[in-house]
Amino acid sequence: MKKISGIQQRWIVNNLSIVVLLVIVCIVAVSLSFTMYYYSSMESGLESKARTTTDFFSDYIGQSYGEFYQSCIVMAQTFEEKDVLELQFISTSGRIVASSYGQWGGEDPETPDIQQAIETKEVAPYRGENPATGERILAVSSPMIYVNGEVIGVMRFVTSLKNVDRQIAMITALAVLVGVVFIALVMFSSQFFIRSIVGPVTEITATAKRIASGSYGSQIQKKFDDEIGELADTINDMSVKIGQAERMQSEFVSSVSHELRTPLTAISGWGETLLSAETMDPVETRRGMLIILSETRRLTNMVEELLEFTRMQDGRFTLNVQTADIRAAFEDTVFMYGSRLKQEGIELKYLENDDEIPEIPCDVSRLRQVFLNILDNAAKHGGEGKVITASISREDDFVVVRIRDFGPGIPEDELPHVKMKFYKGSSKARGSGIGLAVCEEIVTMHGGQLILENADGGGTLVTIRLPIGEAS
Known about the structure:
Layout: H1 6-58, H2 65-77, E1 86-90, E2 96-99, H3 112-120, E3 124-129, E4 136-145, E5 151-160, H4 162-212, H5 227-276, H6 282-314, E6 322-324, H7 326-343, E7 347-351, E8 360-362, H8 364-382, E9 387-395, E10 398-405, H9 435-445, E11 449-454, E12 460-467
Parallel strand pairs: 7-9
Antiparallel strand pairs: 1-2, 1-5, 3-4, 4-5, 6-8, 9-10, 10-12, 11-12
Helix pairs in contact: 1-4, 4-5, 5-6, 6-9, 7-8, 8-9
C-alpha cells in the first residue's frame, strides 16, 4: 500500500475533514428545513380546514343533541377527501361518534390534542404516533361549540405522515448523494492540486539530496511561476553558488599549494646548495641567504593571511580601535612600499593635497594591512603600467583613500566577484584569492566601504571610504 505523503495527509486531515463536516451540516440543514416546511404546511392547512369546516358545520347544528349527532354521521359519510384524510367527530368523553372511514374508523383516539381542544376551545394539533396502530400521523382537533358556549364535541382531521416522511427521506437521500458527489469532486480536483505541489517538492528534494551528496550545480526544471517556482529558482541559484564556491575552494587549495611549493622549493634548493658546498663565494652565499629570507617572509605573509581569514570565518576577527592619525599611517605605508616597488621598476606616486584630515577611531595596524594588500594587488595585476597613484582626502564625513594602477583592469564579468573569497578570475598572478575578502571585512568592521572599479583611461581604481566618526 502506498504511503500517504505528509502534504496529502495534512490536506485530508485539515481541508477534507472540514469539507465533509460542512457537507454533513448542509445535509442536516436541508433535511430539517424540508421537514419543518412540509410538516408546518400540512399542519397550517389542516388547522385552516378545521376552522372553516367547524364554522360551516356549526351553522347547521340544531337545538338538540340528536340532530347534532345525526348531522355528524351524514357529514362523515359524504366527506369527499376520505382518500387522503379521515374526518372524525368525537364526543367530549373521547369516543368516536362518526368517522369518514365508517365502522372501520378504529379505536377511540387517545392523543392529547382532543382534550386540549375541549379545554382551550381552540384548534389543537398533534404530530406523532397513533397509539392504536403505531403509525405516524398528523391530527388537528377543532372544538364544536353549542349555542350556549358549551363544547359538545370535537371535529378532528387525521392524515398519515407516511408519504411525507417518504418524501423527506428521498430529499435527504438526494442531499446525501449530492454531498457525496461533491466530496468526490473535491477529492478528485484536489489530487491535481496536491500533485502540483508534491511532484515539484519531490523533485526539489531529490535535487537537494544530489546537491548534498556532491552534485553541485544540479538544476531543477521550473514549471510554475509561484512559490514553488520561486523555491526552485532559489535552490538553483544556491546550487550554482555552491558549485562556484566548490570550484573556487578547489582552485584556492591548488593555488595555495602552488604558492607554498614555490618558496619552499627555493628555500630547500638554496639550503641544500649552501650545505653541500665545501667552499662558496661570499657573494653567492649572501645571495642565497637573501633569497631564503625573502621566501621565508613570503611564506610568513601567506600564513598570516590564511590565519586572518580563518579568524574572520569563525568570528574571532577583532579590531583594536584607538584614535589615530590615518593620514600619517597611510603616507608611511605608501613611502615604505614605494621603495620596494622601485626595485621592480614601478613608480608609486603619492598625490598630496591640503585637506585637513582629523584623527579617526580605527585599528591602525589592520588598516595598514588593507593599504599594503591593495598596493600589492596593484603591483601584481597592474604593474605592467609601471605607475601606481595613491591619495587620501576628506569628502564630507568620510576619509577617502584611492589607489589606482594603469594595468589592463578587471574584466567586467569578473568585477562583481573579485572580493569573493577564493576568487581569482582569469588572473595568472600569484596569490591565494582571499586578500581582498579580508580587506573588505576589515573596512566593513570600520563602518566603511571598499569599492573596486575600472578607471577611465584604463587600469583599476580601488576606493576606501572610512567614516570620520568620534573617538570611542
